[in-house]
Amino acid sequence: MISTNPFRIGGIAAGLLLVLVLIWASIIFGLTDVSSRMVIDSIYRFDQSNEHIIIRDSRIPRAFIAAAVGASLAVAGTIMQGLTKNPLASPSIFGINAGASFFVVLGISFFGVASLNAFTWLAFTGAALAAAVVYICGSMGRDGLTPIRLTLAGAAVAALFSSLTQGMLTLDERALDQVLFWLAGSIEGRDLELLLAVLPYLAAGLLFALLMGRQMNVLAMGEDLATGLGQRTVFVKLFGAVIVVLLAGGSVAVAGPIGFVGIIIPHIARWLVGIDYRWVIPYSAILGALLLLAADIGARYIIMPAEVPVGVMTAAIGAPFFVWIARRGINE
Q1: In the chain, what's the furthest Cα-to-Cα distance?
Q2: Where are the transmembrane segments (predicted)?
Q3: How far is the C-alpha of 137 from the C-alpha of 201, rounded, in Å?
Q4: How far apart are the first and last CA of the chain?
Q5: pLDDT bracket for residue 332 (50, 70, 90)
Q6: Are 309 and 299 in contact (CB under 8 A)?
Q7: Residue 172 Ramachandran class (φ > 0 left, ψ -120 to 50 alpha, else beta)
């Protein structure tokens, strides 16, 4: 564990440098090999060659989308785990990704939605609805809101929205062709315009999350103590929910429902820097970007010349981790 602030700052600097290295690697490595010189030339001396087109239209957007989505999903999972005190909480497990995906597919299937802004707002709406349903269902009963109730409610809501999505796709082959690869969680073929459409929301969510670190620390001491210290816990939870919707909804709009990033990364960040959310949140953002960048690079080589959706890669990495966390017990 990194226990002193100078080392934590150094860790952030090293992490950011490694993110830049992996972004550069993501641009260079793939089915079409390109050199560093080609990347520089494509930016400053674009000649419309096949390599330059691949770099500018595919590789560069893909690398930055992977970094942005990975950071956003990791921070969303960190906020969710902190608010619910549930180590299994994440946008995928609690049905938020599934809700966002359902609304996007609904818009494509029944309303012919094709614009990027519409995708974004549909994803936000679905994410917010799923979060509200999970919270309401998890709060029902005599014992009120508990980690196990939240987990069960999240699993039920995720299954419901996933089933509805699959049902719509069986009735509309056109929508199936459009979104099948996207539903697996993929950043292949995404252009920079799509990232720019949601970047303000992702940036706002990340910034608000960084500013919320102190409030998360107070809330972690217990709701009664936090209230006694003057914290408006209801406001903190609602603000945290808005952050999760911004980050998870924006990520789904860009890359589809990529799972397990929000589960894995918060635990690694807490293992590295402890339980202080002023450090856990920025470390989660950096580690999330690193994970998705590395997973996307690896996805290009598994079945080359074809590619594995990056969501499949994160699931392969995250499923054993999820089982390990579950076996430890969510009430620890």
Answers
A1: 68
A2: 12-32, 60-80, 92-112, 118-138, 150-169, 194-213, 234-265, 277-295, 307-326
A3: 27
A4: 20
A5: very low
A6: yes
A7: beta
